[in-house]
Write a structure and sequence with these properties.
four-stranded antiparallel sheet; 3 helices; alpha+beta; rod-shaped
């Protein structure tokens, strides 16, 4: 087989090369046979099949982590509002209701809200109740009050895809407790 360059190629050689192939500036393009192009397309398909599951796991992980963080931020916001309500002497029922209203999470119940005050005499946290009149809570003035939201179940958007996470059970992930303290006025 005669190897021809652009300068030395005859008209007949150029016509023979271009029969079924493509031409560029009157010369045939090398490596444009159908077998090689089909082989490259097959390789790209295999590479895509390998990379697609990894990309899907990454995308679902970003989405689920974002939803978990959103729920936790809403819990922290609710705990802050509850601590503020406890600091200004509101009764415990109003504090719990305020936390549920502000957090705006579907699975949050008033029973999940824990209200405590720090007792300096025993160096421990004690549960806060209401005074006999029911007009305010019984936390001592100038003490530190804490509102904690315990055991909130985050509903997993991806279902059981991330079931290996600690705290996962039946489509729900129990989030870490959200807590905030303030000095009672």
């Amino acid at each position: 087989m005669k190897i021809c360059t652009r300068k030395g190629a005859t008209r007949e050689d150029r016509d023979r090369w271009s029969e079924g192939g493509k031409r560029y500036l009157g010369l045939p393009l090398p490596h444009t046979t159908f077998g090689r192009a089909a082989g490259r397309r097959g390789a790209a398909l295999v590479e895509f099949a390998i990379v697609l599951p990894l990309l899907m796991v990454l995308l679902l992980g970003i989405m689920e982590f974002g939803m978990i963080m959103r729920d936790y931020i809403m819990l922290a916001h609710g705990a802050r509002e509850g601590a503020r309500a406890a600091a200004v002497r509101n009764p415990t029922a109003e504090i719990r209701q305020r936390v549920v209203e502000v957090a705006t999470l579907p699975g949050l119940k008033p029973e999940m809200v824990q209200i405590t005050a720090f007792d300096a005499n025993t160096s421990s946290w004690v549960a806060v109740g209401d005074l006999a009149s029911g007009a305010e809570n019984n936390a001592p003035r100038d003490s530190i009050v804490r509102v904690t939201i315990k055991g909130y179940p985050h509903r997993m958007v991806t279902g059981s895809f991330f079931a290996l996470l600690p705290g996962y059970k039946n489509g729900y992930l129990t989030l870490k407790d959200a807590s905030l303290t303030m000095r009672r006025e």
